[in-house]
Specification:
The structure holds 2 protein chains of 2 kinds.
Chain A (H helix, E strand, L loop, with lengths): L1 E5 L8 H7 L6 E4 L11 H6 L4 E3 L2 H11 L1 H36 L5 H57 L3 E4 L2 E2 H10 L11 E4 L1 H5 L3 E4 L12 E5 L7 E5 L1 H4 L5 H11 L3 E5 L4 E5 L2 E6 L1 E4 L5 E4 L4
Parallel strand pairs in A: 1-6, 2-3, 2-4, 4-6, 9-10
Antiparallel strand pairs in A: 1-11, 7-8, 10-13, 11-12, 13-14
Helix pairs in contact in A: 3-4, 4-5, 5-9
Chain B lengths: L5 H7 L5 H9 L5 E3 L2 E7 L4 E6 L7 E3 L1 E2 L5 E7 L5 E10 L2 E5 L7 E4 L2 E7 L19 E9 L4 E9 L11 E4 L2 H7 L2 H10 L7 E5 L4 H4 L4 H18 L9 E6 L1 H12 L6 E5 L19 H12 L7 E7 L5 H13 L3 E7 L5 H6 L1 H8 L7 E2 L1
Parallel strand pairs in B: 13-14, 13-15, 15-16, 16-17, 17-18
Antiparallel strand pairs in B: 1-2, 2-6, 3-4, 3-7, 5-6, 7-8, 7-10, 9-10, 11-12, 12-14
Helix pairs in contact in B: 6-7
The chains are: A alpha/beta, B alpha/beta.
Chain lengths: ~300, ~375
């Protein structure tokens, strides 16, 4: 499996060069379901890739399936509602654990004791993360158990069309956008199973959803501050990393304490920061060709991986 | 230090003259903000000039000094960073006083009583998200009227539908007390358009309600709570695609509107999951029943005393804001620990501002994005 993860493409697209560097031939299947109702507004993307894209239109297909199968729409809505509640409870636990960690961190105590306490704080946060992921997995398993067969029947026609579309493509490209929506559509049509040996290109939210864990983050949200949260397991096509795109807007890279927390909390996964124009290639477990990528260290430093973009 | 202020330099450079005063007025913006020092200036014939402001904790009337027999009057105040102060000038002449807006200051804030001049202290900037943004798709306002059995009268207001409104989607609901004033004086339609456009809040439906008798109906009046919860809410849910979940329903208001919001949620637990309480008039007593604020507050005092005796988690999230220059800061600070102790998620924000619409406007982004986090958290393009 070869996957190229890229930074945001909106202002300075570099996808075309990455595609050319891999020598991809033929049409490129695109997924813009993260753009939701604007899924079809992909003219710029198509032009950037030389007019050879085939949009899989997963958002529209999902709407079609929901319109034809009211039970599935309801089941899907109920599952999302449950996940949303899990997310809310998770966030509450997380906020309190992080607040406790912050308070402990500021106490005067012998350094070795404080270090131990810091480790305990991280362990608590990681346990909360794990618990949340377990609950999410449970929700998906229950959904699969109750509805899996019927979902496959309901989506079979679209699946067949998708298979035919992807068959002629030299690569698949997944754009960013609303990560929950994107992840749902990719799962609904089991797009991962269509990839075969084709290279995958994914940027921003698209890069997030192809990893093992989708981590939501924004260090300067409009309401003050917020802790990064795991949304759910990702597709797991690229493993052992947490992808953090758009650091220009979302990350306080100069806040070593905060960056260190990212690195320690999500270890052993590597926190990869994807600035604009950056890219990195995953090739069956090996990381190659990093350009402009930053890696968060437990010291809180963001160190370059490879040459600048 | 004070020698460095512009007004002191003017006075130190020689006696007053028409030309020097003209040049001074021409070359400065007023009031003059120099770090924490804010100098108010008035030019005109008068027997006395006073600064009238609404900063709780300072004398509400402060005399300006006349410069050496000239027609130039001035007063320097120290204002903490980020302060925003609304004021008028009181000009005395021939035994008569007139309250006027500062002729030298173009900044005005409007409210139902007219307009005030605004001193923007060092570090205060009008938030950019309050200005019209041509790239933000506008939502639309539709009028509505409603016959309320609870109130025995017709009520109306405006309903905000977000840009790209789709009947097939489901939306959170925000009910705004003193809705017309929020639209007119806090620019709330533009704020909603902008915050939705920036993904900081979700696309939502807002209902701007009004009352012809707010001091009675908003003073923890049970009938008003029934109107909102048992009449207006079902009516809205039957006509608009609302999610129908408590966590997607917010009541908000300022001053008495905040009291109405809290009282309604308190009496209808489990219905309204979000509260936005701005400068709430949460008067209470520790002994006796009459608060110093007078009889209009009697029903408020009764309700707040009841809430203080038996606080309950009537919502999930409560955002409370108050200006530190308003007397209600005491009541609001007193309320927050009570709300917090119930297990509700509470966020309290203070601002160096007073009891006015622009203070309430300036807190909307932080409040709404915390109560209704938008897809910004989910969208990575």
């Amino acid at each position: 499996m070869k996957a190229v993860l890229l930074g945001a493409q909106r202002f300075e697209p570099t996808l075309g060069r990455a595609v050319a560097d891999l020598g991809v031939e033929g049409p490129i299947a695109t997924v813009t379901a993260g753009w939701q109702e604007r899924e079809d507004e992909d003219e710029e993307l198509d032009a950037h890739l030389g007019g050879r894209t085939i949009n899989l239109r997963l958002h529209r297909r999902a709407e079609d399936v929901f319109a034809r199968h009211a039970w599935l729409r309801e089941a899907h809505r109920a599952r999302q509602e449950r996940l949303r509640l899990c997310q809310d409870f998770y966030r509450i636990r997380l906020d309190h654990a992080l607040e406790a960690a912050r308070v402990i961190d500021r106490r005067a105590a012998p350094p070795e004791l404080l270090e131990e306490e810091r480790e305990s704080s991280i362990a608590t946060v990681r346990a909360i993360d794990e618990h949340h992921l377990r609950l999410c997995r449970q929700v998906h398993e229950e959904f699969e158990h109750r509805h899996g067969e019927r979902v496959r029947e309901a989506t079979a026609a679209h699946r067949a069309e998708l298979e035919a579309l992807v068959r002629d493509c030299g690569a698949v490209a997944i754009a960013g956008g609303h990560v929950a929506s994107l992840l749902n559509r990719l799962r609904l049509f089991d797009v991962a199973s269509l990839l075969g040996e084709r290279p995958l290109f994914a940027w921003s939210g698209g890069a997030m959803v192809v990893t093992d864990r989708v981590v939501l983050f924004h260090d300067s949200p409009p309401h003050g501050s917020a802790a990064p949260q795991i949304l759910d397991a990702g597709l797991g096509l690229v493993r052992g990393v947490v992808v953090l795109p758009a650091p220009e807007m979302r990350l306080r890279l100069d806040d070593a304490e905060r960056m260190s927390l990212y690195a320690r909390r999500f270890a052993p996964a590597v926190c990869l920061v994807l600035p604009r124009c950056s890219r990195i290639t995953w090739d069956d477990g090996l990381w190659l060709d990093a350009r402009g990528i930053l890696r968060l260290r437990t010291s809180g430093r963001a160190v370059p991986l490879g040459p600048p973009a | 230090m004070s020698e460095r202020l512009a007004i002191h330099r003017l006075m130190a450079e020689g006696p007053p003259s028409h030309e020097r005063i003209e040049a001074f007025l021409r070359t400065h913006a007023f009031p003059i903000v120099e770090g924490p020092s804010v100098t108010f200036v008035y030019r005109g014939e008068a027997d006395a000039v006073h600064l009238r402001h609404w900063i709780y904790g300072l004398e509400s009337s402060q005399p300006l000094s006349r410069w050496n027999g000239s027609d130039l009057w001035w007063l320097t105040l120290e204002l903490p960073e980020g302060s925003r102060v609304e004021y008028k000038l009181e000009v005395w002449r021939g035994g008569q006083a007139r309250w006027i807006e500062d002729p030298l200051n173009p900044n005005r804030a409007r409210d139902p009583f007219g307009a005030n001049s605004v001193a923007q202290g060092h570090g205060y900037v009008v938030p950019e998200w309050t200005f019209h943004d041509a790239t933000a798709r506008p939502g639309r306002l539709e009028g509505f009227t409603f016959d309320s059995a609870a109130l025995g009268a017709r009520r109306g207001g405006q309903i905000y539908l977000p840009a790209r409104f789709r009947p097939t989607r489901r939306y959170p609901l925000l009910v705004v007390h003193d809705g017309s004033d929020y639209l007119r004086y806090a620019g709330m339609k533009v704020v909603l358009d902008n915050l939705i456009h920036r993904l900081e809040i979700p696309a939502l439906i807002a209902v701007f309600t009004d009352s012809p008798d707010r001091l009675r109906e908003y003073a923890a009046c049970e009938a008003h709570g029934r109107y909102l919860t048992e009449e207006l809410l079902p009516w809205l849910e039957s006509r608009f695609p609302l999610t129908g979940r408590p966590q997607d329903r917010c009541l908000m208001g300022a001053s008495f509107g905040a009291v109405a919001s809290l009282a309604t949620a308190y009496r209808h637990p489990g219905v309204w999951g979000r509260l936005l309480l701005q400068s709430g008039s949460f008067a209470f007593t520790d002994i006796g029943r009459r608060n110093h604020r007078g009889p209009l507050f009697d029903p408020v005092v009764e309700f707040v005393n009841e809430f203080r005796r038996h606080p309950s988690a009537c919502a999930e999230r409560v955002f409370v804001s108050c200006g530190v220059y308003e007397s209600l800061i005491y009541e609001n600070r007193s309320l927050v620990p009570l709300l917090d102790a119930t297990g509700m998620e509470v966020r309290f924000v203070e601002a160096r501002d007073g009891h006015n619409w622009e203070n309430w406007r300036d807190r909307l982004r932080e409040a709404l994005s915390w109560l209704f986090p938008g897809p910004l958290w989910m969208v990575y393009e």
